[in-house]
Specification:
279 residues; 5-stranded mixed β-sheet; Helicase, Ruva Protein, domain 3; N-terminal domain of MutM-like DNA repair proteins; alpha+beta; 7 helices
Length: 279
């Protein structure tokens, strides 16, 4: 948490409020918050925010100064937030980065992270290309159905870990993997090699539907997520299985939602998501 929908909400809000604004100051309170790259404060002063993009679960701010572009890539991690100055923050000592702007409706964007699992990367264009190639697979909202089918056909192993493998499919975490698999009626431990063509195509369609619905609902505020303007994501109210252990299956099949313990807990219905072969 956050996952692709939350990162997309963050990117859209920043784009709407800050795109085209000029950076007045760039303050970093902890040197270890920068994963790679060096802060040259003099270069960033006066740079214009030209683009705001999402890559997987990360948000990249593209800044241009004298026709040179550099990127500030924020990995939100488990508890990281990008917040506008107008949003009150608990424990302000955990604000590790401040980007101050001129000519924008929001004068400041803050990076807040109490656990410091998130990081910033300060990259030029070549560095960004290397960063993306190293860390991210295809974007589930941009990949074609044909390429999605090909990717699954080339893989082995269990289905849910594949959906969450960021170097294969970038952006899906535990919350949305559970929701996608339930709606697609696929068991989390289903071997990918046993999926029929029809099941793979259905999985693609459900994946796109769930992620788009979650973005429109502002994401899921589970535990720590808030959008930059301080609002909570409402998609958590539409979760069908995530965190619902012991509750009745939403399909009214007579079974209860079960939980499989692992590196990440899986929530599923044993009747609706049978582990039998689906060829």
């Amino acid at each position: 948490m956050p996952e692709l929908p939350e990162a997309e909400v963050v990117a859209r809000q920043i784009r709407a409020r800050l795109l085209g604004a000029q950076l007045r100051d760039f303050w970093i309170g902890r040197a270890d918050i920068v994963r790679e790259g060096l802060l040259t404060a003099s270069w960033y002063r006066g740079a214009v925010l030209q683009s705001v993009q999402r890559f997987g679960k990360s948000v990249a701010l593209g800044l241009v100064n004298q026709n040179v572009c550099r990127y500030v890539v924020a990995e939100l991690g488990m508890t990281g937030l990008l917040l506008f100055q107008s949003v009150p923050t608990k424990y302000p000592q955990h604000v590790h980065v401040r980007l101050s702007f001129e000519g924008a409706s929001e004068p400041e964007l803050r990076y807040w992270n109490p656990r410091r699992f998130g990081r910033l990367s300060l990259l030029d264009k070549t560095g960004l290309e290397r960063y993306l190639a190293r860390r991210f697979g295809v974007d589930p909202l941009l990949v074609s159905k044909q390429d999605f089918v090909r990717i699954l056909r080339e893989r082995r192993g269990r289905l849910k870990p594949l959906l969450m493998h960021q170097q294969i499919i970038a952006g899906i975490g535990n919350i949305y993997a559970n929701e996608i698999l339930f709606r697609a009626r696929l068991h989390p431990n289903m071997p990918v090699s046993q999926l029929s063509m029809g099941k793979v195509e259905r999985l693609y369609e459900v994946m796109c539907e769930v992620l788009e619905e979650a973005i429109l609902a502002g994401g899921s505020s589970v535990r720590d997520f808030f959008a930059p303007d301080g609002t909570e994501g409402q998609y958590k109210r539409r979760h069908l299985v995530y965190g619902k252990e012991g509750q009745s299956c939403p399909n009214r099949c007579g079974e209860s939602i079960r939980r499989l313990q692992g590196e990440r807990s899986s929530y599923f219905c044993s009747r609706c998501q049978s582990l039998r072969s689906t060829r």
